[in-house]
Amino acid sequence: MPKVLFPRFHLTEIEDTSWCPSWLRDHAHSSLARLWEVKSRTGNSLATQACKILLSVLGGIDRAASYTFIDSCSGAGGPTPYFERYINKQLEAEGHDPAQFVLTDWAPYVQAWQKLAEQSKNISYVKEPIDAENATRLAKPGKRECRILNLCFHHFDDPAAGKVLRSAVESADAFLWV
Asked: How far apart are CA 161 and CA 138, in angstroms?
């Protein structure tokens, strides 16, 4: 049996507390979203690396064409705008229709999401809170659904993390946990 080197951390960020002012939460989420595109010494951003892994896991760009991508803990949008541009550029080059990306969260940041949706017709959002532990399928009939969980698992204690994974396994066709 594999040995656990260190336990999974369950952390709370100040902006996730009920007493945190909304302006501070919004600023923190926007700052975290910008970090996805910071380039490393190799010239790739975390978003680029995650996109490459996602496409590999899904079986390549042709298979990715059949998916709607749901960002289950979006914050201010995280890497989703980058994912949308990266994946849809490749889909277009292969003659496929663009994939759709949907932003969701238990605390929707609608102001940021509206701006993202205005910048791309392939990004939409759900205004109402969605609990990732009990998320329902959002992909349209005939489309597969891929849930993306971007740097959010530290928000969940072990029982809640299990529910998030169970929800993704039971109601989506694939999921990526970055």
From this structure: 20
